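Issue 218. Parser rejects a valid record. Input:
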Amino acid sequence: MSRGRPLKPLEVGRGAREELESLARSRSLPAGLVRRAEIVLLCADGLDNKTVAERARVSRRTVGKWRERFRTRGLAGLYDERRPGRPRSIEDDALMTLLHGTLETRPPGGGTHWTCRSMADATGVSKSTVQRLWTAFNIQPHGRKHFKLSTDPFFAEKVRDIGGLYLNPPDHAMVLCVDEKSQTRALERTQPLPPLGLGYVEGVTHGYIRHGTTTLFAALDVATGQVLAQCKARHRHQEFLGFLRHIDANVPPDLDVHLVVDNHGTHKHAKVKRWLAARPRYHPHFTPTYSSWINQVEIRFNIITRKAIRRGSFSAVTQLKEKILRFTDHYNPGAQPFLWTATADSILHKIQRLCMTISGTRH
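Output the parser choked on:
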């Protein structure tokens, strides 16, 4: 029988116990947090501190500490408290000088951007301090994002039209995002690929042999996320018309079809216009120039490229086509629609901010 002061009751509700058991089973959380959850669970089973200490291989003082922390604070008591740390060593003036120099100047000698070492040499602070400050203020002098502003005079109208299709699709209709991924190359690596293993990534030689190209035609159903795809040898209005006929054969005849397409010449060819005019249920919606990002099928093209093409080695175009279509057939049954949340006003406001930033740039 244990001696000393009687232990205060430790009450663990059902929800708290489930959370503690989840923490105790975790293999990704810090080991200290996992051990604390195990200690509290043993205490909740009615064991005294000495028995819990023996099972958890910790001291009785440690058991008493976490028992009391959980009793008074609950699950939050198991987490480490934030420590203030040592005072900041860099003065405000030096901090502002460093940030201003990073954002407003360029390194001497014609450099395009600052590095941690060059900024440390220029300001007299350590390289690690520069790195910490850049991280704290989310400054990335080495980073770059690419963009291209649309010159379409009807940009706003087209954005509102297509955004409305995504956010409020019409009744008794299907919205299809249609485009082509042209010049998809069948590349065969010149050397075998070392496989993925413990401690090293998959290897790939930069040398390759070209075996021709194919064009992937795809139509993404916005409502389901499924894709209708065909691979064709060329990228002309004839192939686009053939793909439209393929769509027509696979879409329920009682539904209107809204096609979101870009401004490529094949989509506006006279024969394509006549084909669409002869079928009133088809309604084309053209994206603004330089705005392929608004066409959701581009997201699917990116998925196909990353997961089926980029890391492959193809000895013939037919092998590439089979891989693309097999991947599409496998992906479709579990496909989910992309969640489009951007309104036309939010897109236009973002473009306006970008234009103001560009107009105010001094470099």
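Fixed in the parser; the record now loads. The two ends are 79 Å apart (CA to CA).
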